[in-house]
Amino acid sequence: MLQPGLFTTVQDLGRPGHSAIGVPRGGAIDPLALQLGNRLLANDQHAAALEMTLVGGAFEFTSSAQVVLTGADSGAQLLTRQGVVAVPPAVPITIGPADQLRCGPITRGVRSYLCIRGGIAVPAVLGSRSTLPAAGFGGFNGRPLLTGDLVEYADPAASSPNATPRPPHAASHLSALAAALALELTGRRSLRVLPGAHADRFDPTSLAAFYAGEYTVTPRSDRAGIRLDGPAINSPGDGRLTSEGMMPGAVQVPSGGQPIILAPDGPTTGGYPVIAAIITADLPVLGQLRPLTKIRFEPVTRAQARDLFLRQHERLLGNPASP
Amino acid sequence: MAPPEPANLTWVGDRYLRIAFDPHADPSHLQAAHAHLRSKPISCLRDLTPAYATLLLHFDLLGLDHDHAEHAVRVALEDSAALAPSVPSHPVASRLIEVPACYDQSCAPDLADVASHHGLSIGQVVALHSAPEYLVRFIGFSPGFPYLQGLPSRLFTPRLATPRPRVPEGSIAIAGDQAGIYPRATPGGWRLIARTALSLFDPAASSPSVLRLGDRVRFVPISLAEFESMRASSSQGNNP
């Protein structure tokens, strides 16, 4: 690790199943980018990668590695003895010993994933290699990476000994899919939602304002929550109800009237009223919402939500026959 | 004990089923439902989050049949209610955990304020807070944080107007009618009236959270010297 970038953590697909001890699922906040990166490298889908935020890191490799960068474009370059080459997003490359990979500022979207063949090798905690920085465990010593950190990656032969090389046309199809999805996610300006647990306690004027309004993503957003600035909403119970179970994508309204969208590292329970819940298919958008971006909430039905998810799942399977 | 009101089931988002219990019912009903649902293999059910009067079921959306899942949950809840013990109060198997608590000013920055707010002496607050057996209603907010029921009403105190950006690890706190313990240094808005050196959460342990739903907790006052000695010898001794 030469330069860590703004906020770089080890993430995989998370640790579901522990909310009853106060541990959120966590994991990559743009799981589509992570999954595609792992597929491009013929990794296990649970292989861990480095999630970079707004400014990517610079890495020196001590041995060869196959890597791919997915998610937002960080203008990455590869420095070898032969010179400097640009590294296109979503295209696997081979890195030699002493080569340097330099990721730069992300200007569209927020998060870029450095995926490595074999996956990042850190101990699993609660069944996952994801980092929960607020609680100080998981990933690389429970914290974001710092200059000088030595991050190990698994020997690909040991972890996926039976993985057969992907035929070239399928690989390029996957690269095209990853690039297209990144473009779509980083360009999204609406979030599709279903009613939240307490929707019926909000007054009609507030509900109308919420669905008609434009909300700006504030810089006070992170892996725990996306804080928004926009038309104020009257919050029932003056913003405080009895604590209950929460989920990523819950749109909470504290007493100030400014919504917060709970993200993967957010608390497992909470007392803020929930006006809406983002559909599963749109959760990856949370990972690419840049501060100062304006978004709107779009109500859909449960059947539509399910349909959107299934179509996304089919697309992710990368069947070249799928649209 | 009267049979509980039927629980109310609502889908939240596209894959969460929220079970709302009667808030005035004995907590053992929710606890029994939680235990029963955890033991049943319901298709696509991935996680359960108990809280005061709700149980949130997390499902995987791939392969989820909402109607089938809801039906399976209703049947399980009916079975759970039918199996419920006929006597109220705590399940036979609940554990009592003693939490050593230091009420010295250096460990209890809000203790003096809480005392004067209620027109009590510090000694009276300590006596009131450490007298009851608290019931762990659920673990939430952060890893290992217990929500405790049983705070004497004479100590009901509003939370801080402005939360602290950082609450010391092990802080024992109250807010409104709630009591809790911060297992780790996090932001927090509750009133800090004591501190423990007992580690409440270890992610590497086979059972990471020391406290769990249904446990009973008693605070045992200890001196500052005893607290510092415990901190020095425990694994959290390096954290200020």
What does this molecule look like?
With 323 residues, chain A is an alpha+beta fold. Chain A is 18% helix and 23% strand. Chain A has 5 helices and 18 strands. In chain A, strand 5 and strand 6 (83-86) form a beta hairpin. The longest helix of chain A is centred in the middle third of the chain and has 20 residues, at 168-187. With 240 residues, chain B is α+β, with helices and mostly antiparallel strands. In chain B, the strands form 3 sheets. A 7-stranded mixed sheet of chain B has the order 5-13-6-7-10-9-12. A 4-stranded antiparallel sheet of chain B has the order 1-2-4-3, covered by helices on one side. In chain B, helix 1 (27-39) packs across helix 2 (66-83). Chain A binds chain B through residues 16-23, 25, 125-126, 132, 134-138, 194-197, 242-247, 249-250, 267-270, 274, 277-280, 302, 305-306, 309-310, 313, and chain B through 10-16, 18, 23, 34, 46-56, 58, 61-62, 64, 66, 138-145, 147, 184, 186, 201, 203-204, 208-209, 212-213.
